[in-house]
Structure formats: structure tokens, C-alpha cells
Design a protein that fits this description.
The protein is α+β, with helices and mostly antiparallel strands. It folds into 2 domains: 65 residues, Winged helix-like DNA-binding domain superfamily/Winged helix DNA-binding domain (Arc Repressor Mutant, subunit A, Orthogonal Bundle); 177 residues, Beta-Lactamase. The protein has a 6-stranded antiparallel beta sheet, with helices on both faces. It has a two-stranded antiparallel ribbon with strand order 1-2. β3 and β4 form a beta hairpin. α2 packs across α3 and α5 runs antiparallel to α10. Pfam families: HTH_IclR (PF09339), IclR_C (PF01614). Keywords: DNA-binding, Transcription, Transcription regulation.
């Protein structure tokens, strides 16, 4: 049977993905070890990617990191996303109203990806990055999305991705999580109290498209003391309004779906 992929291209994509997930620039040997490729093969791939601008050398030409071309492609992708265009003004309004950081995320392969962010005016704020990935079981936005999925799909995600404990508050029992997801499904608001990061409280609400499918979620997050002072219930109410506004603009009819 003929191969359905081009091996050289697949290996090149493996190299890009390794660099994308690395915390710092990597050398040829380290890249090869991570994707089980010989150094000579990795070196040839890197030479081509550097020539095209998708990878660049750093640290005395011995290490590699993603290049500006990748950034250009990413920006083009984000700018073309309909949900980002629709949600952007709503995120900004919500951030101004609550004076906390607001994020928009999309689900991808059992995780969430942060695709947009509206800042607060606080000096002490969230140091998050657009493009970052995060687990679903311990984030407010992740749980907001999980609450809309069939149970068997959620169980599959948990089985594949696991339920890593990040803090003492992280839920690592699937049955405890399912009980919480049922509550979120009814209220359309999820609350994550220091489950992913100590000292941070985050609230999430799902965003639906015209078909009623949850295609993303909105979050508001900040230092636990500040969020509690402003009132979790009040923040949740404003978030729910924002989520409904974005969903309606994407063609979702709340009255029809109720």
C-alpha cells in the first residue's frame, strides 16, 4: 500500500514541533534524541528550515529556535479566525469592566490553546502567552468545554491525556470531575480555584457556534484574593453575558436551544 504522507515533510514538522514546545533553543543532538532521528538528518532539515526562515540559529550558531516565518504564519492564522474577530471586542469590554485578564481559548487534541487575550491595568497580572497550550481537567476554560461533550468523549480525553496533579487542589479523580462538569453544564460557568496554579482563581464559560457545538471558551483570571474580593458570582454573571454575546454573533440561538 502506498504511503499517505511524505516522510521528509513529516520529519521536518517533527523538528518544528520539538522547537515549538522547547523552553529554550536546542542543539542538533537534543532535537535528534527527542524525535529519534540521526544528527545528520536533523542537520539537513534545520539547514533547509533556516534558509526559508522557519528556524533560526542562536547561541553561537550551535542552537536553534523558531524563526520569524513561523510567527508570520501564526499571526495570519489567528487573524483569519472568525471567532477571534467576533470575540475580540467582547474580550476587551469584559477586561475593562472587571479589570482582570480575559482569555479566549480553543480546544485542540484534548487540550486548550490560548488564541487571544485582553489585559487588565493591574501591575500584578497573569503572565500568560497567546499560543500556549494547557490541560483541560484543571483549567476553568477546559472544564467549561468538557461540560458540553458526551461522557464517553470526556473519558477518552482523560484516558489519553491523563489527570496530572499540578497543585494540591487539582482534581485527579474522574468521578469527582464528572460531578463538577454536570454542575457546569447547568450553570454555564466553571470556577477553578488554584487547581492549575497556586494563588490564581479562574472562571470560564463556553462559546457555541450556530450548530450548538462548543468551539471555545472565555476565561477571567487573577490573584485569588482579588477575584474573591470582586465576587465570583458577579464575575460569573458578566462572563456568562459575554459568552452569550459571542455565541449569538456566531449564529447560536439560545432561545431555540433551550
Amino acid at each position: 500500500m502506498a504511503e499517505k504522507y511524505v516522510q521528509t515533510l513529516e520529519r521536518s514538522l517533527d523538528v518544528l514541533e520539538v522547537l515549538a514546545h522547547a523552553e529554550e533553543p536546542l542543539g542538533v543532538t537534543e532535537i535528534g534524541n527527542r524525535i529519534q532521528l540521526h544528527k545528520s538528518t536533523v542537520h539537513r532539515i534545520l539547514q533547509t528550515l533556516c534558509y526559508r526562515g522557519y528556524v533560526e540559529r542562536t547561541k553561537g550558531n550551535e542552537h536553534y529556535q523558531l524563526g520569524i516565518k513561523i510567527v508570520e504564519l501564526g499571526i495570519r492564522f489567528f487573524n483569519d479566525l472568525e471567532i477571534r474577530k467576533v470575540a475580540g471586542p467582547v474580550l476587551n469590554d469584559l477586561a475593562k469592566l472587571l479589570n482582570e485578564v480575559v482569555h479566549l481559548v480553543l480546544p485542540d487534541d484534548g487540550e486548550i490553546v490560548y488564541i487571544d487575550k485582553a489585559e487588565s491595568s493591574h501591575v500584578v497580572s497573569m503572565h500568560s502567552k497567546v499560543g500556549r497550550r494547557a490541560p483541560m481537567h484543571c483549567t476553568a476554560v477546559g472544564k467549561a468545554i468538557l461540560s458540553t461533550l458526551p461522557e464517553e468523549e470526556v473519558r477518552h480525553i482523560l484516558e489519553v491525556k491523563g489527570m496530572t496533579r499540578y497543585t494540591p487542589n487539582t482534581i485527579v479523580d474522574p468521578e469527582v470531575l464528572f460531578k463538577e462538569l454536570q454542575s457546569i453544564k447547568e450553570s454555564k460557568i466553571s470556577v477553578e480555584k488554584e487547581e492549575n496554579e497556586i494563588g490564581i482563581i479562574c472562571l470560564g464559560t463556553p462559546v457555541f457556534d450556530y450548530s450548538g457545538r462548543a468551539i471555545g471558551a472565555i476565561s477571567v483570571s487573577g490573584p485569588a484574593s482579588r477575584i474573591q474580593e470582586k465576587g465570583i458570582e458577579r464575575i460569573g454573571q458578566e462572563m456568562k453575558k459575554a459568552g452569550e454575546e459571542v455565541s449569538t454573533k456566531l449564529g447560536f440561538n439560545y432561545f431555540q436551544k433551550l
